[in-house]
């Protein structure tokens, strides 16, 4: 009996070792996994893609805080609504069955209109009544719960994908790779961010937005229509959130709570870059995305968001105002 117990592991070892020895004897290369350098490059590519998607969604969140100092906890639901609205137009049996590109454009328009409607219907009356920021923040939490469960009722809990650009072969980038879909999403996201920067720097409405963010009272005294600027910011934030939701649903999957899951990283990008700074939100979100993906080289995937938040804490310990934020005196 003792010899039989020893024989079983010995035979298993033989069955494992013989193919490898035979391959070496015949000059065949034994298959190996990707090197650490290849995995690091792939994680960097994935991190840039993830970061620019977070940046698109977080820019509007930062602009809202810069103009009216409101922390919009419902911003993640705008992301979900954009993704699910495009899904309805593209995939749902009750929808028109549009191609994803016009469905995405319609979702951006719907998100912008929703942002404007929320400002005109909720936030402007509350501002007119002099409602405090803490009370308005509580309202954003309630609005988030309402919108999330409306999406849950209309969309359901089953994850789904868009009809187009689902399964694609990768394009080789040295030892790493990226699908044409992911490459297109990344390039489009970068172009959108560059367009936002040009809008803020080169247009009259962009100048007005920066003026209101810098000093609301002085901007109003200078003849700027602050309410119009705030309405524009809400519509811009809603449209960008919807676009980011479509991009995120395209590279990942569409779910009823996808925006809520992304909300913490949006806040991390905004705070890391500097509260109220659109450019800071872009830089901070890119850092968060890269750190989240690069951390998977050493740690489990389930902890990738935690390491991004740890970097946020470390940066704020050194630079409390964020990467591009302005230091202010308290008191």
TrEMBL record:
It comes from the Bacteria. Residues 1-25 form the signal peptide. It is a multi-pass membrane protein. InterPro entries: ABC_transp_permease (IPR001851), BCAA_transport_permease (IPR052157). It is found in: Cell membrane. Keywords: Amino-acid transport, Cell inner membrane, Cell membrane, Membrane, Signal, Transmembrane, Transmembrane helix, Transport. The chain crosses the membrane at residues 51-71, 78-94, 100-118, 130-155, 183-200, 229-251, 263-292, 304-324. Belongs to the binding-protein-dependent transport system permease family. LivHM subfamily. This is Branched-chain amino acid ABC transporter permease. It comes from Streptomyces xiangluensis.
């Amino acid at each position: 009996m003792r010899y039989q117990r020893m024989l079983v592991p010995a035979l298993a070892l033989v069955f494992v070792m013989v193919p490898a020895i035979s391959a070496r004897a015949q000059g065949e290369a034994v298959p190996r996994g990707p090197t650490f350098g290849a995995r690091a490059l792939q994680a960097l590519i994935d991190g840039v893609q993830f970061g620019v998607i977070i940046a698109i969604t977080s820019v509007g969140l930062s602009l809202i805080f810069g103009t009216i100092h409101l922390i919009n906890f419902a911003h993640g639901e705008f992301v979900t609504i954009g993704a699910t609205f495009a899904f309805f137009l593209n995939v749902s049996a009750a929808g028109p069955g549009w191609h994803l590109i016009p469905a995405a454009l319609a979702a951006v328009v719907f998100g912008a209109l929703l942002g404007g409607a929320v400002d005109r219907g909720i936030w402007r009356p509350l501002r007119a009544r002099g409602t405090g920021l803490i009370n308005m923040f509580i309202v954003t939490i309630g609005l988030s719960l309402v919108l999330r469960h409306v999406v849950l009722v209309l969309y359901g809990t089953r994850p789904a994908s868009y009809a187009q650009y689902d399964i694609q072969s990768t394009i080789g980038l040295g030892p790493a790779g990226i699908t044409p879909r992911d490459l297109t999403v990344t390039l489009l996201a970068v172009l959108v961010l560059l367009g936002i920067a040009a809008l803020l720097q080169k247009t009259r409405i962009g100048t007005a937005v920066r003026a209101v963010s810098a000093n609301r009272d002085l901007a109003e005294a200078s003849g700027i229509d602050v309410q119009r600027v705030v309405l524009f910011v809400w519509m811009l934030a809603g449209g960008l959130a919807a676009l980011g939701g479509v991009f995120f649903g395209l590279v990942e999957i569409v779910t009823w709570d996808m925006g809520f899951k992304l909300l913490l990283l949006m806040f991390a990008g905004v705070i890391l870059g500097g509260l109220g700074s659109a450019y800071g939100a872009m830089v901070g979100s890119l850092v968060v995305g890269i750190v989240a993906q690069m951390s998977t080289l050493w740690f489990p995937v389930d902890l990738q968001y935690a390491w991004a938040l740890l970097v946020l804490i470390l940066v704020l310990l050194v630079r409390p105002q964020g990467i591009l934020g302005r230091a202010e005196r308290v008191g």
